[in-house]
Amino acid sequence: MASPSLIRRVEEAFFGAWPALAHGFDDGWVLRFADGYTKRSNSVTPTYAALDGDADVEAKIDRAEAWYRARSLPPVFRSTPLADPSDLDERLAARGYTVWSPCRALYLSSLTAETLPPFPESVSLRVDTNPREGWLEASQALMPLISSHEATLGRMLDAIVPEARFGAIYEDGQPLGVAFVVVQGTLMTTFHVLTAPKARRRGLMRALLARLVDWAMDEGATAGALFVGVNNVAAGTLYEKLGYEELYRYHYRVAPEVLGGSVVC
What we know:
InterPro entries: Acyl_CoA_acyltransferase (IPR016181), GNAT_dom (IPR000182), Rv0428c-like_C (IPR056935). The chain is α+β, with helices and mostly antiparallel strands. 30% of the residues lie in helices and 30% in strands. The protein has an eight-stranded mixed beta sheet, sandwiched between helices. A three-stranded antiparallel beta sheet has the order 1-2-3, with helices on one face.
């Protein structure tokens, strides 16, 4: 099993790479709020050991539920190996919470530059510092969001504090894939990887990710991490070909009233 310190490092890096719009904290639990866009940014992630070992855990769950419901959001918890107390998942199950979207945290201990063949003339690749310079439009073309969620995504990306780069690949002017990376210390995190069906199995996303890795290495990154759904076999296979290995797994526990919603690992 991965060390708790490495898991914590990855978890904290992804807080920065996929920020919420508001936060609450309750004795080791990080409560994130982002107007309902994605479970990751609208869920409780127990990240640190409680300072009060005698705290009433059921009362903490009650408080978290109240905070989310007060904002018209369903209570959702992320269950990771860092969860404190260790029986939190069982406590949530007893309340009727169900498992949602099992995910894998993948880790690459040593980033390496990759030399790729040149693109056809019809294919172009763009990397920007600002997602509002075409990247958000490309993302929306590949995965259309309702207007409120599109606006929330833009605000979340504007809130990223560490250095980030937003990459998109086009063919004849049409977006085929997007992704972005964030560098915090020596760790590069990758997020929001989207690929058009006609771009698959052509090596285009691999080329885009390689370009982003080149930038990250120039910024001092030596390792990489990303999250992927357990059921997303195609993406998992691509990342494993790039050298990523599973570090740990986690899942969401959603309250009984949750019927649907957007899940981002």
